[in-house]
Structure formats: structure tokens, C-alpha cells
């Protein structure tokens, strides 16, 4: 559908013919122009990518902290 649009087929015709919402076609065209990919993961902004990485790092640090707390409890009993 994006290829049809890029080849000059009118937007309204594509939307009508394939029963799309205008926003869907616009999103796909935008993704194709920006990254050449339609995968959400490859179309994230730098801020979204950073937020994902920070959340992963935070979860890792919380797990490490829990392990250290458990180790301190075990060692404190001895």
C-alpha cells in the first residue's frame, strides 16, 4: 500500500480500496520514509529507546539489590 502511494496512486483511492483509516496509511508512509521499516521497535524515538534501556537497567539493579539483601540476611544469621 505504501508502494502504491509512492508510485502515485491517490491516497483516497488506497484508503477506500483497502478499507483503511487515513491515520494508518499516514503512519505507514511516515515509517517507511523515516526508517524504511514497519516494525515498531525500529521506529522508536531516541527518547523512547533510552527509556526502555533505563527501565531494563533499573530492573537489573533492583534484582541485584534484592540478592544483596538476601545475602546480608543469611550472613547476619551466622
Automatic annotation (TrEMBL):
<protein>
    <submittedName>
        <fullName>Transposase</fullName>
    </submittedName>
</protein>
<dbReference type="GO" id="GO:0003677">
    <property type="term" value="F:DNA binding"/>
</dbReference>
<dbReference type="GO" id="GO:0006313">
    <property type="term" value="P:DNA transposition"/>
</dbReference>
<keyword id="KW-0175">Coiled coil</keyword>
<dbReference type="Pfam" id="PF01527">
    <property type="entry name" value="HTH_Tnp_1"/>
</dbReference>
<feature type="coiled-coil region">
    <location>
        <begin position="44"/>
        <end position="71"/>
    </location>
</feature>
<dbReference type="InterPro" id="IPR009057">
    <property type="entry name" value="Homeodomain-like_sf"/>
</dbReference>
<dbReference type="InterPro" id="IPR002514">
    <property type="entry name" value="Transposase_8"/>
</dbReference>
<dbReference type="GO" id="GO:0004803">
    <property type="term" value="F:transposase activity"/>
</dbReference>
Amino acid at each position: 500500500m505504501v508502494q502504491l502511494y509512492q508510485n502515485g496512486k491517490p491516497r483516497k483511492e488506497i484508503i477506500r480500496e483497502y478499507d483503511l483509516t487515513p491515520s494508518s496509511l499516514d503512519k505507514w508512509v511516515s515509517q517507511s520514509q523515516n526508517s524504511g521499516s514497519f516494525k515498531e521497535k525500529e521506529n522508536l524515538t531516541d527518547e523512547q529507546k533510552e527509556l526502555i534501556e533505563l527501565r531494563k537497567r533499573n530492573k537489573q539493579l533492583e534484582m541485584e539489590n534484592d540478592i544483596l539483601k538476601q545475602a546480608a540476611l543469611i550472613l547476619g544469621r551466622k
